[in-house]
Amino acid sequence: MNRQEFDTLDIYKQINYFNNEMALGLSQAKICENINLPKSTWRDRLKKVGYKLDQDNKCYRSVTTSNDTSQNTNNTIVTPSTVIDIPLFKENIAPDSVTASTLEILKFKSDLLELAHIKKDILNTIDIVKKYELEKDIIDIVDIKIDSNKMTGDIKTRSFKIYSDVLDKFLELTKKHPDLKQQDILSQFIIEGIQKYNR
To answer: What is the pTM of this model?
Structure first.
């Protein structure tokens, strides 16, 4: 927002603008600098409507005293009769009702709106993670491919000692592939082992 736009707002909307900016962490001096507004001019405007900076809550509050001396003359918070539109948060809040808890709610709402804007990305990420979780437990069953070009030479008979558990697993595997001969499967495993470890 620039100075011209700011000056077109009524005083309560100007106060509201400052409160919103301070809720986002900016100082009064920085806000004045950003819109090219002298701090003295801003103080004069606030004084005319009876507003002061509440240092504890980092917002402007309406503080007035009663003219009737018979009544309590303590400072009281006065709420304007009109409700102000805060375009940043799309809420109707009177500027002096912005307290620490209200600011927390506004910040929380702002965070929720930000999350709503990236909802699609979040859901896509969740889908990808779910898909990964499902697929990581699935073991791909790879068909045994016999490279007949490497099966050359005469078939020889050899006697090997083998552990019974390994032999049982091998025989179980060969039962799953009845279309292949045991000698071809074993030969393919040996060739793959030689290629992998003979370096």
So the answer is: 0.35
